[in-house]
Amino acid sequence: MQDERRLAVLRAIVEDYVSTQEPVGSKALVERHGLGVSPATVRNDMAALEEEGLITQPHTSAGRIPTDKGYRLFVDRLTTIKPMSSAERRAIATILDGALDLDDVVQRSVRLLAQLTHQVALVQYPTLSKSTIRHLDIVDLAPTRLLIVLILSTGRVEQRLVEVSQPVTQDDVAALRSRLAAAMDGRVIADAGASLRSLDIPDDGGVQSAVVEALIEAMSDHRSSERVAVGGAANLARFGDNFEVSVRPLLEALEEHVVLLKLLGEAQTGGTVTVRIGHEGPYQQFATTSVVSTGYGPGDEAVANLGVVGPTRMDYPGTMAAVRAVARYVSRILDEA
Amino acid sequence: MQDERRLAVLRAIVEDYVSTQEPVGSKALVERHGLGVSPATVRNDMAALEEEGLITQPHTSAGRIPTDKGYRLFVDRLTTIKPMSSAERRAIATILDGALDLDDVVQRSVRLLAQLTHQVALVQYPTLSKSTIRHLDIVDLAPTRLLIVLILSTGRVEQRLVEVSQPVTQDDVAALRSRLAAAMDGRVIADAGASLRSLDIPDDGGVQSAVVEALIEAMSDHRSSERVAVGGAANLARFGDNFEVSVRPLLEALEEHVVLLKLLGEAQTGGTVTVRIGHEGPYQQFATTSVVSTGYGPGDEAVANLGVVGPTRMDYPGTMAAVRAVARYVSRILDEA
DNA sequence: GTTGGCACTCCCGGGCGACGAGTGCCAGCG
DNA sequence: CGCTGGCACTCGTCGCCCGGGAGTGCCAAC
Does chain A have fewer CB atoms within 10 Å around its N or its C terminus? Predict the structure, then answer.
């Protein structure tokens, strides 16, 4: 079956290129892997693989490197996610178990992921819309300035400032608070807007409607409700030397949380790790990077995503394993909460 | 007074080097600035300046570049902070006035500062210890899991999870909440610990003491209470090409908030802008960078710092102006709150 | 279908020399 | 005494050439 051997050659090329970062030639290939055939044979296979668009050569008379299509095939068919070593497992447990609150879990995860994969890690904060409201509070900071505080089932705390046109008394605030709290407690955020409207608070242009407006806005707002923590940006340094052109746009993108959210994509349940390779995504600046991501959340419900972004030339099996392991562990922590 | 001219030469060297990023020679100097003397004269002055350790040449027969000491003199005696243009002032106002809450103010500031200076911006979140407690709340997330929420005068919200050994009832929680709230409301954080202890809650090893412990810890904790927002990391790309050696450690340091806090230093009042040049600081990786920082806060009280870090070869007058302007504006916003 | 042989391509690194920017020094001038 | 023009010198940069070597594609043979 020379067809099978060709795929073995592809796998070998990917593995070698990932570890050496240099185009790999036929001779080195048969030496480093026990392929049992001669370099000439491998050359024929390589020609065929190139014909199919799976590998390419940077210039004539250089070795081959995988194309995006080649990586895709590698990820889909040629690799199995390697399990984490027990030492790594312990490290994950040790680091994450000390977390104090949700923010801390996210921050530790992002660090951990960056450390494990030596790449840039992304961890999305649990989405608001799927959590339920545990507690609602209204605090009067100043006579015309109220702070709405929402505490969610995931442990997340959302806050929102409201300016009102007329001064309010403490009694007003207390009344509003208990009324709203009663209406909102235990609701899923996504539905809460509706039940809020059905409360039928008079649109008097005054305090009550202003607060309700702000609440509704806060719950549907994507500004703060969809945040992403970034870690390990220093690992971009391993990108080679075409600095200003390749790294700068990436660093810029890392500050655009909207872009990062798109990169992470829709939350997926069930432990599936998604890999997006090179220009499979819509972003020009990520054309030479791959994104490995998966969902996490309590139970089987995915409330957010996490993952890493690194050069297309990355260790896919190892990275996928790390991403999956961290996601599992974080999910377990949320389970307990 | 050739002494005065020498300083003029130094100033010219700094300005030229900052704008061109190349060693500046005697001929170019007299052409670009109206010094009114010949290159030979300038060369003599340069020799003297080099003697004093204010400038240096990368190699024989190259132009001169300022040393850290040279920049220091430039900053201390040779420059006045240029006022911001009215367009810039408007930009600051427009961007910051739309802020929704404290977090938003900080995030917008850090972006703005990075944009104005084309450097890496740092904004410290207002220190806890100087703010007063506006509101204290305790929420039971689960029977053995409580969430303490502190709302501070600066608009900041602090949260802390507490695990207790035995299940608590809602009534217990309510009782504890009102008691603590009464004791803490309006206190300055720094003093609150003391008044908490004087409450004399029995150290029964149970719920109450656990909560009090956590509260005290939360208030004295430097983990979350001293956070720093970072922005414009992409501007590190302008650092030249010795990538892995010069940029990577900086990127790493930018994720170490402890380091950043040290860089920003003690909060200063009164609109003084502090400049730390090159290896004047303790950190090896910041030996080729300068930090321009100042304090901000409501009234004349500095509750936190903000600033930028960039290459020693930076536009000091412009940067100092931007830092000062943003600090002033942010302070004004906190005033209103 | 596999293998060894062979000519060919082309990148990479080192050595070399011309060029030019910039300096230091010196003698002369106001 | 300080400024100036002149001049020799240094040294990094750039373009160039060239040999070595890795790797390929093709072909004939098994």
Answer: N
Q: What is the pLDDT of residues B300-320, one digit of tens each?
A: 778 889 999 999 999 999 999
Helix (H), strand (E) at residue A77: none
Cα distances from A73 to residues A11, A155, B5, in angstroms, run 9, 40, 69
C1' (C24) to CA (B244) span, angstroms: 38
Categorise residue A200: left if φ over 0, alpha if ψ from -120 to 50, beta otherwise.
Answer: left
Q: What is the DSSP letter of B300?
A: T
Question: What is chain A's mean pLDDT, rounded?
Answer: 87
Report the alpha-carbon distance of residue A200 to residue A197 in Å, rounded: 6
Q: In the beta sheet, which residues pair with residue A142?
A: A145
Which SS3 state, helix, strand or coil, does residue B334 take?
A: helix
Verify whether the Cβ–Cβ distance B139 to A142 is below 8 Å.
Answer: no
Verify if strand D has an atom below 7 Å from the CB of A155.
no
- pLDDT tens per residue, range A198-216: 766 665 656 777 777 777 7
Instruction: Give the separation between CA B69 and CA B50, rounded to whole angstroms.
Output: 11
Distance A83 CA to D2 C1' (A): 80
Distance from residue B242 (CA) to nucleotide D16 (C1'), in Å? Answer: 27
Radius of gyration, alpha carbons of chain A = 26
Closest A-chain CA to B135: A139
Asked whether the beta carbons of A310 and A319 are under 8 A apart, the reply is: yes
Chain D nucleotides with an atom closer than 7 Å to a protein C-beta:
2-6, 9-12, 21-27
Q: Which of B68, B80, B109, B60 is nearest to B278 (CA)?
A: B68
B173 touches chain A (CB under 8 A): no
Say yes or no for a CB contact (<8 Å) between A135 and B134: no
CB A55 within 8 A of CB A67: yes
pLDDT at B264 over 80: yes
Task: Give the model confidence (pLDDT) of B244-257 as tens digits.
Answer: 778 899 999 999 99
Give the C-alpha separation, B78 to B54, whole Å: 13
Contacts of B160 in chain A (CB under 8 A): 100-101
d(CA A326, CA B283): 33
Query: How far is Cα B134 from Cα B152, in angstroms, rounded to an integer?
Result: 5
| pTM of the model as a whole | 0.87
A50 in contact with B, Cβ within 8 Å: no
Length of chain A: 337
Instruction: Give rounded-to-5 percent helix, strand, coil for chain B.
Output: 50, 20, 30
Sequence-distant (≥ 6) Cβ neighbours of residue B73 within 8 angstroms: B7, B10, B54
CB proximity A245 to B under 8 Å:
no
Q: What is d(CA A153, CA A137) in angstroms, rounded to the nearest whole number? A: 15
